[in-house]
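Rotation project, supervised by the postdoc (A.L.). Task for the rotation student: set up a whole-complex structure prediction and record inputs and outputs verbatim in this book. Inputs entered:
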Amino acid sequence: MTTAVSFQNVSRHFGAVRAVDDVTLDIAPGEFFAMLGPSGSGKTTCLRLIAGFEQPSSGHIEIFGTTAEGLPPYRRNVNTVFQDYALFPHMSILDNVAYGLMVKGVARAAREAKALDALDLVELKGFEGRRPSQLSGGQRQRVALARALVNEPKVLLLDEPLGALDLKLREQMQVELKTLQRNLGITFVFVTHDQGEALSMADRVAIFNNGKIVQVGAPQEIYERPRTRFVADFVGSSNVLPPDFAGKTGAPARWMSLRPEKITIAVGGTPAKAHSVAAKVTSVHYQGAVTRVNTDAGGQAIAVAAPSSFGLIAIGDEVTLSWPADALHAMEDEA
Amino acid sequence: MTETTIGAATEHRNGLLRRFSDALFRRPFLLLTLLLAPPLLWLGIVYLGSLLALLAQSFFSIDEFSGLVKHELTLSTYAELLNLANVDVILRSLTMAIAVTLAAALIAFPIAYYAARYARGRWKAFFYLAVMLPLWSSYLVRVYAWKLILAKEGIITWFAGKTHTTWLLDAILATPVIGGPSLSISYIGTFLVFLYVWLPYMILPTQAALERVPVNLIEASADLGAHPRQTFTTVIFPLALPGLIAGSIFTFSLTLGDYIIPQIVGTSTYFLGQAVYTLQGTAGNIPLAAAFTVVPILIMGIYLAIAKRMGAFDAL
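Outputs recorded:
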């Protein structure tokens, strides 16, 4: 079986900076693949390597079996939805969407019919005569999507496409993008620094840090079994327990990840022998359904996500934290 | 202690200046009026007012016998403007302005493109210096320098002699109408000096416009399958067009109205500016001079209307 996108030991250096450092990666056809990482971690450069805006310093890239390095962007059957949409300000919405077909020499009537279909797909029919400046952020985002999809790309690249939208619209677009991807069957490669977005939308997630991929896997796998301390902390802000602390609570003396929502909090009480500690509340943050309680367990900070229905907890309260043995996940020593 | 502080503050508030600044804060429109009044008065009365006064003169006529201005509204001065000799002046100036503008655009665009898209750091500074430096020296000095360069005894003739291309120079000078006895007394010479003197006014706005074309639009175009040539014609050029138009307004209107360059370098035939200069000076025919100044204003108006129609300002 061919892969949609394949990276083999790909590096991209800018002077002394290794923006992408020896990345090996396979993306399956029809997959919704998310690249997640903090800014400057190399995920956007990876996307630009697929689009052809960057060329690898070393390594090999294949897109559906075709060697990609040395191929300019306009010879790749790949389209991008840009972070700030990059709509052409001097063209109407219709001309924007029909642009890819226009430069390929498709006749006016045919390309405009296809562009209208694409606008229909993103529910923007009736907007074709407007200019990008007359549209809201969410509408521009859809135009950018239609403009890319009208070319029927084999791979659609999305560079933080929801970053500029407000929360409500972002959640709505997440659902729509996911539905669209399932219906069209196109491979989506989605770059984001929002871990919630990556986990909720993607089939698989690659976690980037310092130009390297730290972990690739399904969202549940990434969340439940982070491979390193970085992944545990970046995805869902897990509690990272050092080996000596883990040892004291009856677990193997290794770096452990403990998810805040798996901890039970009780006011007062005495800790059990294993998987339990006494702690003092340092701050309380009400977040609606859950309340985030930061505690201090003998010098070790532990965050707890307790259901808000639990009741009142105040700063300075003495509490007992406990968790099931299987809530602990041992990680590799690598930072 | 607290009381004293409040008392001091209140006392301060009662100061005349403080009350004035509070009034400005409450009425932003008052502030705007105060700030804008002096420049608007200057623009409205001194500049536009005198221009209108001049234009009003064009509807008067001059008495053939006494040479005095007759203060009755008439279109006879405009009729005079349509004399063959006067139309000749207008067409000559117009042709020159168009030629200079087109040539300036052709030369300026690649330079501006390089400066905006490729030049970085030191090279960018060098570019600005190279474009601006000529503007720092006197306009007259530059024009006279060109007279020397273009003269029969000048460096171009000398260079042609050294490189055995005198025949080429002679052939160029033998071209009917635009040729002449030497470059400094031909339309070619006038054209070259105009081109040199106004070129920076074309380069700078074009460069500014090109610099404002977002890189991601160029990437988006390539991403959608456009070859670099297509990207240039469909994205870069249309977005840079307002800059080019702005530059062309400079070169066009400056050429149209200039009366010094054609006097120093070129044939003794008149251009618009010279006609106005002579008519309002030695000839004392203010109404006709005023009618002549209406011509470039009209031409610019038509030019801008065409540019707008062609969508030159759509990307603004």
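Student's summary: The beta strands of chain B are 61-62, 69-70.
Supervisor addendum: The CA atoms of residues 4 and 10 of chain B lie 10 Å apart.
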